[in-house]
Amino acid sequence: MDLQLKDRVIIVTGGANGIGAAIVRACGRERAIPVIFDRDESAAAKLSRELREQGIKNEAVPIDLGEASACARAVDQIATKFERLDGLVNNAGVNDGVSLEHGSPERFAASLRFNFAHYYTMVQAALPALAKSQGAVVNVSSKVAVTGQGGTSGYAAAKGAILGATSVWAKEVAGQGIRVNAVIPSEVRTPQYEVWLQKFENPKEKLRAITSKIPLEQRMTEPHEVAAMVLFLLSCRSAGITGQQLFVDGGYVHLDRKLP
Questions:
Q1: Which of 119, 155, 193, 252 is catalytic?
Q2: What is the 3-state secondary structure (H, E, C) of the chain?
């Protein structure tokens, strides 16, 4: 299917690694123009070079998403340089393990700022350009927003906030022709996930225990599978979809895990 994304300018936050990098590469395959917003300047530059070597136009912007003024300037610069902005993928975040029992109000508030506040900042900054192109926003959340997970109060609250904001923003900007949707991945095999697995005494056994609960083929979700859903939601092929939560999780959240 031709997603008709050729020459469309798409900002991807946290686009240098993991799911974000998969989204950036998928944009490249569709001949869109991905713009990598990431604080990891080295990884962003490396991915940018990889794409350029393939003849894919792109941009890498080193940025601290926690600085609202920097986000606004960077979005404006990209929209001015390319004379358009067609899509925004809010993806940056990390499960920082701020728990209820062993956390603190300060760390909890910091987790919300780190994992959610920049979603608001980026969408607000991008609105004028997206209104001109009647573009789309895709917010990447997590199954933790729905299922919960022990010891991750800050991250779970932030991911839940993303889902609530997606609904509100979709309604607020619908009159401008802007669509806003959320993608909810689960158990995605990323480098970050691998680091988490290595914290266990027997990582392979932990992985087997996790995948045994995933109905579809008892396997992890791959980053490119999440990217495929994101690109569909960015494209005109999903023109009638807004305010929705799309799960890419092999049935992990909604299918009965006790079924044989």
A1: 155
A2: CCCCCCCCEEEEECCCCHHHHHHHHHHHHCCCEEEEEECCHHHHHHHHHHHHHCCCCCEEEECCCCCHHHHHHHHHHHHHHHCCCCEEEECCCCCCCCCCCCCCHHHHHHHHHHHHHHHHHHHHHHHHHHHHHCCEEEEECCCHHHHCCCCCHHHHHHHHHHHHHHHHHHHHHHHHCCEEEEEEECCECCHHHHHHHCCCCCHHHHHHHHHCCCCCCCCCECHHHHHHHHHHHHCHHHCCCCCCEEEECCCCCCCCCCCC
Q: Among 35, 49, 38, which Cα is nearest to 16's?
A: 38
Q: Is 155 a catalytic residue?
A: yes
For position 258, what pLDDT does the model report? 59
Using one digit for the tens of pLDDT, what is the confidence trace for 75-118?
999 999 999 999 999 999 988 888 888 899 999 999 999 999 99
pTM as predicted: 0.94
- Is the confidence at residue 178, as pLDDT, over 60? yes
Which structural domains are found in the chain, ordered by start?
A: 9-186+223-248 (3.40.50.720), 189-220 (no CATH)
For 66, the token pair is: 């926690």
Distance CA 251, CA 100 (A): 28
Predicted local distance difference test score (pLDDT) of residue 260: 55
Mean pLDDT score, 144-160: 89
